[in-house]
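Weekly modeling sync, notes
Attendees: S.R. (lead), two postdocs, one rotation student

Agenda item 3: backlog of single-chain predictions. S.R. asked that every request posted to the team notebook include the full sequence so nobody has to chase files. The rotation student volunteered to paste the first one in as an example of the format we agreed on. Action items at the bottom.

Example entry:
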Amino acid sequence: MNDQTSPKPFVFELDRLTEYSEEAILDEIRRVAAVVPDGPLTTTIFEKHSRVGRNTVARRFGSWGKALVTAGLSERWSEQLGSPGAVQAFIHRMTNDEIIGSLRGLADRFGKSELTVAEVEVNLPFGGQTLRNRWGSSRAAFEAAGLSVTNHGRRYTDEECFNNMLEVWTHYARPPQYREMGEPPSSVGGKAYVKRFGTWNKALAAFVDRVNADPDNLSPEMVPATKTADAEQPLDVNQGMGRDKREISLGLRFHVLHRDRFKCVLCGDSPPVNPTCVLHVDHIVPWSKGGRTIIENFRSLCGSCNMGRGNRYHD
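Predicted structure, as returned to the notebook:
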């Protein structure tokens, strides 16, 4: 019997785009940026991996830098420019239409019709001051771009910051980096964390302290005994803890996901491998059938495996 693995079939792909619309070129720039995720994205690197030439990009958008900004990849251009002075000079040369195009491109990248100043400052080379200088207010700039304004000047609560941190941590299956807080699925920029906690590392430490302080993380064996008039009796996990609420606390969710290595325990899918994967913390024995809110009764499931499960169990 031949145990050798069959060779993978040859797949032929065109080395050029089938169309050269602005959106097709922007998608190609984003694709190459994902292939080469670190450092400045230069035209030399782009042409090595791309299916469209840099001259075509420059003709369509005016310059390589403007194309990167429109694609929502201004940080890859800022790294290439180097000095703050060069970045400011680049911003000064941008026309109002180019700035509006950058705002729209960022909103498209996030998949929404609204932006915050914090999202602009994290993801684009310019920020609120540029918008105020050009349009009088950031709100007017957003409206000129056809975007809604949300969370303008908003201060997030600790709980909102921690819940967002959990979502991003799950997405990468590791502690997120500061720059990643300005990208989906994050809805709270890194600057908001620094303003609240002092530094990014302190924000990470505050999140870890928060999840570790959650008493719902304890298993029944770890719960302290309760004292009665006659003697100490172990806590009945069918009363009080586990039956006092159905909601899953932030700390408990994190510990379940971490225990399961941020993967679906049934099919093995995970967000770092499949960005469309969304993990859920699921009752093994459903709440409606007496299941308890304790770590042993939870598992991580992807949306596909969890869909339609209802209140069945032992799948």
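Discussion: group reviewed the output briefly. Residues 215-306 form one domain.
Action items: rotation student to repeat for the remaining queue; S.R. to check formatting next week.
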